[in-house]
Amino acid sequence: MTMKRWIKMVLGLGAVGLCVMACNLPSGGEQPGSGAQPSSVVEDAVEATVSAEQTRLAMPTLTVTAEPGLETLTPSLAQTLENTAAPVPAVEASATLQPSATPTVTMAVSPTPSGPVVSVSMDTNCRLGPHVVYDYQGALLKGETAAVVGRIAGNAWVLIENPDRDGNCWITMSYGTVQGDLAGVAVAATPPFYDWNGTYSVWANGLASIYPMTLSQNGVNVSGSLVVGGSTLTISGSLSQNGQVFSGSLADATAGTSVPLSFKMLENMKQVVGNYIETTTKEICGARESSGKPAPCLWP
What we know:
Layout: H1 3-24, H2 39-57, H3 77-84, E1 117-120, E2 124-127, E3 136-140, E4 145-151, E5 157-161, E6 168-172, E7 176-179, E8 198-204, E9 211-218, E10 221-228, E11 231-239, E12 245-252, E13 257-265, E14 271-278, E15 280-287
Antiparallel strand pairs: 1-4, 1-7, 2-3, 4-5, 5-6, 8-9, 8-15, 9-10, 10-11, 11-12, 12-13, 13-14, 14-15
Helix pairs in contact: 1-2
């Protein structure tokens, strides 16, 4: 109920009370005690009514008194977060990892040659000796250089440090260019050169007869003749890389026949052993410069 309505009600009740009082007043000479109600009764009734209405309509005022120590029950936000935060799991102590050592890369540096060096205009074979009949030992490629450690008289071939393996080998100077002075490089000893030129005494097929054979060498190519009885047989073929082995043919131009022929020169440079094939393999060998018949005669 609003305050305005409450005031109207109080005023209304007051008016009613006044009317009641007026009605109870004694008329004329009416004396007290003749049955009229005293005015205090009406006042008490109005006061009681007003007091009751005030009690009923008055809005109660609640007073909250904090209990001693209540503030300790309300933790601060920081404390609340600290208390409610998920616990951090303990980390077990472990051994400290030692950093691995950084590997040290050592670059191998080839020593700079103190003497002449050679380069080539095209890839060049490097051989056991200063000739194409010698065995292949490696190669000096275009763009590479090698130290010169020896030479032959005239400098047509030079001995170099082998680019492909331990040791030295020979290259022709047909494609080579030297940086430096070759005059200070010693003339090197060369391996035995298998020279096939000459006249040989030949034994063939186990016969006691000796047949003359003449051979002529031109680089790796060898040609010649073998006289057997009244027939002259033609020999032609080529040498292996080191010049020690001949492979070719023995031909009879009159009969129109030709058979395979092979020789190997022995290290003494005076004897040859070999075979020819005529349905079966047969031995043939020879000697020069008054050397005797090699034994065994058959090769291989």
